[in-house]
Amino acid sequence: MRFFHLALALCLMLGGFAYGQQTNSAAASLIVNENDEGAYPRQSFLGRLDPSVLKLEGPANADYFLLFGNYNSGTVVPGLGTLHIRLDQPWGTIGGQLDASGNTELMLPPGSLGSFPVGTEASLQALVNDPTAMFGFALSGATQVEVVSTMTAPLLLTPGENSRARARGEFVAGSTTSIMIAGITMVVTPTTQFENFTQMSDLVVGDWIVAQGLYDANGNVVAEELCLEDSEGFARVKGRVQGIGPSGFSVLNVGVFVNSDTTYVDIDAPTVAVTLADLAIGMMIEFMAPVGMSFPAASSVELNTPFELEPEPEAEPEPEPETEIEIDIPPSFCS
């Protein structure tokens, strides 16, 4: 920990350095909520109601120190922040050690930003121990973050009552009144229909669920049907875009990340190249995401997708009644 104090003091002494112009490198890299695109300093959101993910890279087993500070006119000014994640670091910063492959992933749970109101702007930057560097450490590129209600985009639209939504993915959590599928939460009511199971307590984490629902007057997605099916390779979610941000979009009341590997196709113009910038508030889309993730991250996005109801499962054909065959039995030989 002594290294951290010395390094931080050195950073504060270098107040004139344009940290906002620093870029990620093999010596120090920081990616906030999957946003690995754009000029430095990069732009991202931190959600008050959602988990946030910070990915750090550098030399194997190197000590790291995450700076949380003010952001002024494109220049990051490191500060002692108040992002309290670890109780053994009361000065309010995050520090630790990269693993043997030079990586670490930090999950900031919901509530970590409780002291920061929506609209707060700050900077995040990683400082990684590097004995070969001039000052004994390397700095990652900076990310300008804004605190919002959801991670990737503010909710600018509440779809109208009875607007449809659909999700296909792994069962994450649930109760008698709610279910979470692939990061999407739906309300369960006494009128919700169950297929291939009889009650919510029958489900276990990892079960594959196909859910169809409607928005209610309060903006909640109420599940109409929940069907237990065989597992698929990717989760699929369909609904109207509620917000668009620099690192993703919001749909079904949650933020969805995109990155440089996300692909896009417009159903209305399949031969025209499209990107995140072509999404529009209120547009019906469907995105796919790898299973097993703790937050939605789109691998592909389909724009202007039609919404068709899931077909009702075909009923098992009823067995035809057995026809009794009458056979004329000849009289007994003995008779």
Word description of this protein:
By secondary structure, the protein is mainly beta. Helices cover 4% and strands 39% of the residues. The chain contains 1 helix and 22 strands. It has one helix at residues 2-13; strands spanning 29-32, 42-47, 52-57, 63-72, 75-77, 94-97, 103-108, 121-129, 137-139, 143-148, 164-174, 178-181, 184-187, 193-195, 208-215, 221-229, 234-245, 248-251, 254-257, 263-266, 284-290, 300-303. Strands 11, 12, 13, 14, 15, 16, 17, 18, 19, 20, 21 and 22 form a 12-stranded mixed beta sheet that branches. Strands 2, 4, 5, 6, 8, 9 and 10 form a 7-stranded mixed beta sheet that branches. A 3-stranded antiparallel beta sheet has the order 1-3-7, with no helix packed on it. The longest helix is centred in the first third of the chain and has 12 residues, at 2-13. The radius of gyration is 27 Å and the shape is elongated. The termini are far apart. Mean pLDDT is 77; it is low at 1-20, 73-92, 310-315 and 331-335.
